[in-house]
Design a protein that fits this description.
Blueprint: E1 3-11, H1 16-26, E2 30-39, E3 42-50, H2 58-72, E4 74-80, H3 81-87
Antiparallel strand pairs: 1-3, 1-4, 2-3
Length: about 90
Amino acid sequence: MKKTIITVVGKDTVGIIAKVCTYLAENRVNILDISQTIVQDYFNMMMIVDMNQAAKSFDTISSELVKVGEEIGVIIKCQHEDIFDMMHRI
């Protein structure tokens, strides 16, 4: 399984989750786990997704999600699970 960590951070607005999830569904990216919080007016979401059946490459999806984020005023980042794990080892 090709797991990827997707983070979304920015000012809270209507439709952030819908826009990101719609993009992922249209590109056959399966959401395995999702956590989101709003602290005051700031939105924070972390997703673990499976990209085994993805319609596009990791690089393409990552760059297109950056553009989706720009459209809705948030920052979206994607990282391979193994890189994420190595960066956050204690």
